[in-house]
Design goal:
Blueprint: E1 2-7, H1 18-27, E2 30-35, H2 43-52, E3 56-60, H3 75-81, E4 87-96, H4 104-121, E5 125-130, H5 133-145, E6 151-153, H6 160-168, E7 172-175, H7 185-193, E8 199-201, H8 223-234, H9 238-252, H10 254-258
Parallel strand pairs: 1-2, 2-3, 3-4, 4-5, 5-6, 6-7, 7-8
The chain binds zinc ion (ZN) (2 copies).
Length: 259
Amino acid sequence: MLVDSHCHLDFPDFADELDAVVDRAKAAGIGTLVTIGTKLSEAEKVIAIAERFPNVWATVGVHPHEAAVEPGEDTARLVELARHPKVVGIGETGLDYYYEHSPKDRQAACFRAHIAAARATGLPLIVHTRDADADTAAILREGLEQGAYTGLLHCFSSSKELAEQAVKLGLYVSFSGILTFKSAEAVREAARAVPEDRLLVETDAPYLAPVPMRGKRNEPAFVAHTAKRLAELRGLSAAALEAATTANFHRLFRKVATA
Ligand SMILES: [Zn+2]
Ligand SMILES: [Zn+2]
């Protein structure tokens, strides 16, 4: 079974048919879903969704878009929320200089606080980065100088160089439906450069539906299209790509296997 390592099941897009969305994912061969937190003020809502479904897990964090208005520097609160048995990661967090909905210094402060929480809990860090390659790499590296943590770059859309740096830092790289977009040759180049034991797939649903669903509301079942494209790119069978990405997921998200 495949894993959708990043979706947003708490978003209003899914409110009326969450059971159907989770069922459709299962029918499409997606065994495990991770619903990702974007606001600390709504962490309980995200965790409640994970409590409802045995194969859905949650993370807690503050998206860089929310860094100006959410208490994203509260490492202690992140650590406390992470004690919940269904919370398996810290994030999403990171830097988004494309939209810059929050000031850069606020984004960086929250990012550092999340790294501290990942270190304290031993849970993987889910990093969102857009148009911020140099600062992202610098903050990740600085965090490692203060002590070990693991994590991933999600919905990868940056340069191949950033993917390679992340791999050197021990991180994983997760690819979304962007990989299937006609214009995304640079993303495919990055996807070819990541070692097989560091690759993950995700939807980032409800956003970024992969081809041939592009333009529709995305949902976890559609991660199969991204996995198929990634397998082609890498010259792997669908089964081999599925086995690799699922094994990688469980190596990184250890709490999923043991909870
Ligand atoms: Zn994101
Ligand atoms: Zn997201």
